[in-house]
Amino acid sequence: MATLVDQDFFARLRLLSDKFAASVPGMLARLATLRAVFDPHAPAPESVAELRQILHTVAGSAATFGFRAMGYQARALEQRLRVLMAFDVIAPRDWESWLVSLDNYLAWAEIDPQSKNYPDENVQQQ
């Protein structure tokens, strides 16, 4: 028995993919803005929460729309951020280490967010 295929499915998926791709520069700009004002000695809770939310959104959506390594790395950053958020006191050096990873992510994504390779982590997505 043949499976019925929604003829409009791929057209809708392409529109959603285009919408996601169009949102990437703004998302990267917002992450960079939050990064620029981030104080590892006294991080603002609102900024930490917004960073986590953006990374969570990217991690959940990126692979669907052809940005696998970007999503994978966003998930890794989000998970590390969640660990930091779980503690009442965090040493500035721990925040600084996380910020270096965020800086690397932003630098990589600015060049080619759809790349299948993430050089700092030797991630290769098929």
Offer a concise description of the structure.
This protein is mainly α and 126 residues long. Helix content is 66%, strand content 3%. It has a domain at 43-114.
Which structural class best describes the helix and strand composition?
Answer: mainly alpha
Low-confidence stretches: 122-126
Mean pLDDT: 90
Topology as a string of helices (H) and strands (E): HHHHEE
Strand arrangement across the biggest beta sheet:
1-2
Share of helical residues:
55-70%
Cα-based radius of gyration, to the nearest Å? 17 Å
How many helices? 4
User: What proportion of the residues form beta strands (DSSP E)?
Assistant: under 5%
InterPro entries: HPT_dom_sf, Sig_transdc_His_kin_Hpt_dom
Keywords: Two-component regulatory system
Domain HPt: 20-81
Organism: Massilia psychrophila
Structural notes for this entry:
The protein has 126 residues and is mainly α. The chain has a domain at 43-114. It has four helices and two strands; from the N terminus they run H-H-H-H-E-E. The protein has helices spanning 9-36, 45-61, 68-85, 92-111; strands at residues 117-118, 123-124. Strands 1-2 form a two-stranded antiparallel sheet. A hairpin with a 4-residue loop joins strand 1 (117-118) and strand 2. Helix 1 crosses helix 4, helix 2 runs antiparallel to helix 3 and helix 3 (68-85) runs antiparallel to helix 4 (92-111). The model is unreliable at 122-126 (pLDDT under 50).
